Prior knowledge:
heterodimer, A: mainly alpha, 0% strand, B: mainly alpha, elongated
Amino acid sequence: MNPLLLWFHKMGSPPTFYRVAGLWLPWLYALALVAGAAGLYGGLFVAPADYQQGESFRMIYVHVPCAWMGLFGYIFMAANGFIALVWRIKLSETLAMAAAPVGAAFTFITLVSGSLWGKPMWGTWWTWDARLTSELVLLFLYLGVIGLYNAIEDTRQAARAAAFLALIGVVNLPVVHYSVVWWNTLHQAQTVNLMGQSKISGSMLWPLLTMALATHVYFFASVLARARAMLLGLESGKDWVRVLAQGAAPSHPEAAHG
Amino acid sequence: MKPGTVSAACTAVLKRDLALTWRRRGDALNPLLFAIIVVALFPFALGPEHAVLERIAAGTIFVAVLLAGLLSLDQLFRSDLEDGSLEQLVLSPHPLSLLLACKIAIHWLTTALPLILVAPLLALLLQLPPPVLPVLLATLALATPLLSLIGAMCVALTIGMRRSGMLLTLLVLPLLVPVLIFGAGACNAAQAGLAYAAPLLWLGAWLALAVVLAPLATAAALRISLT
């Protein structure tokens, strides 16, 4: 078998995933911490103040990466949900459901930080502008997925139903976005463009990209950590969990506490 | 035993659902009363000035109709689940999505169509300018089937739950945001004397897509919920 495919199949098995994710976690957390610290230092102290918005523009170093992660989290959740529904892979169900609260949290931070930035810039905490409204709808979609997952007793059935809802949301999300754009707009236009020339100066850009790296790595670390915990619950009747719980694994004594 | 044709099965579902609704025709009035009461609350809250009511009329009617439709969604599969006929539909050799499309059509016919018929009365209560009324009726005619179709997917997902009311609201309403924006937007544009064809066409396009995809999605969701 193709080694990549073999690796993929192996990772689909909960015990292997649990072990490998446990090995990765400290590194991911460390990278997120370092990149986050560097990005925040660069954004809050090194980058020059904006000629128009002054110091307030520094909010983008939290706001924009979180907004990206809110959307990325949804796509990650829906992609895993699709895999879970089509190929019935238990790990994908777990990953999709582990991503939901993390993505919702990023979306919430986006809304709150945008609101804090809006007060001095626009003179109001909230305005019914296109992007704010789509972000709010995104948060509602996340909350719907989380609510559905928590409302159904059987965990696996709940994960499949919630994954299906996430997929419905994916179809709906572009329509929501464009309908809302058509409806009203006040938010400033997109300024960062990875593929072409960004309309933001380099001294302001690198902390933003560093923060984006940090939030991505943190997202994965958080999802892996949540998925590990959820797998333990899901597989609580299996041997590997019993071995782990009773500390009868002499080769990995730390895993029992991890 | 040889299974009947697909069209016979669809006709049977249509007839059965119509008969069931007819025997409980008192219940069918509830969404109407709900919409009228919700609309009647707005003048109490905002004051009876004609200018204010005229401004909010179309949007308020739209929201009232959406909420009334949302409340009636719970009935879509409830009794069929309780008496076991929903499982029979799932087990039948005919395409589940078609049978569900029939059920959704009857649901729209018995809950949403009366709401559209009562909309002129609601418009009267809120002083909607008469020239806007045809636009309101047209948008409602396009928006209420969307509500039934999108709602059916979410109902199918929550079917196993005893108390799904609040959760259903959380699932359905975000998905209906575009419907509300386009529907009320068309009415507001007509009221302001602007062109209103674009939002109507958008609603029509969205409806065409939903008519095809929503029954399939509802069938898939039902299969997940009933396993």
